Amino acid sequence: MLGAITAGRIADLLGRKGAMRLSSVICSAGWLAIYLAKEPMVLYLGRVLSGYSIGIISYVVPMFVGEISPNKLRGALSSTNQLSIVIGLSAVYVIGAFVGWRILALLGVVPCGLLFLGLFFIPESPRWLAMNGEEEEFEAALRKLRGKHADISYERSTIQEYLTILQTLPKVTFVNLFDRSNYRAVIISVGLMAFQQFVGINGIVFYSTEIFKSAGFNPSLGTILFGILQVGVTAGGALLIDRTGRRPLLMMSASGLLLGNLLIAFSFFFKAHSVALTLVPNLAILGVLVYIAFFSIGMGAGPWLIMSEVFPLHVKGLGGGLVTLMNWFGSWVISYTFNFLMLWSSHGTFFLYAFVCLLATIFIYKMIPETKGRRLEEIHASLNS
Known about the structure:
It contains 18 helices and no strands. The protein has helices spanning 2-36, 40-68, 74-96, 101-107, 109-118, 126-131, 135-146, 153-166, 183-198, 201-206, 208-215, 219-244, 246-272, 280-299, 302-310, 313-344, 346-367, 376-384.
């Protein structure tokens, strides 16, 4: 959450690449502190550093990808961020089964180093360069991204005209996020990110093994199926999002999450009341797999993509920071309260999450605009109209 609060300002001050490079250095220091820790305070320091860096990069990466991508590929390219996350999670689960936690922490330095070095070979966000008056670098970056022989004249002039308008506006403060010209973007992105977390995703991800055990299903088999399905469906969502659009996938995702939560809820309800006990394990595993499949296809990547699209450049730092803060706050709330809710009522917990999924479906239908194939500047203008 601390990383999220400062991420926007860091990305505006140092650039998108600078923020990612800073995050990789801090994260490396965090993993090394965990690896070398001889006492609890050093271990806590490592956790603070790694957590802070993830708060920064979880905001900067989707914003950077959204800013550099062509309109027709923006959804697919942005969704590869979520795909990479679930591949990384699955890889760590597999590696962690064979090595101790110190070695696992040391291995965490490897992707940080690759990111730090890789940033020397890619261009900065053209929109950030233009916003900071670096005209030659702006055109060179746009040319490198679009190809040597591509016609960039229209895209270049569109970005420059939009920035000319933005430069006439006063310096943005937190209060300005709720101005008439920005409040719709805030409601859309913060609301969608809140629903992403409060549908219960981290309760199910962090405690999937316990859910399988409680329902009487083999937890090892369940975890393997969980990881395979998450990677496969996320990849499918990345391929679909620029064809079907954002709204249909988000609507389908929220509806599927409702179904998954209901299946899990009924499995615990039947178990608590000794009804159809032979169905309980099957309902539990089916519910979890339905849940993770539908989360991966829309609500996993969708909120990050929408966040990167709806905020104008001059408020993207503050607005994106607020959205990322909501993400990690919601993650903490669900992770912290899940065990208490399960002690209160296992089936009641998932009926509650199902109700949130219903609210999410209504919110998406009423509030989320379709942004497929539209220029970022066009999206911002339509939200202000």
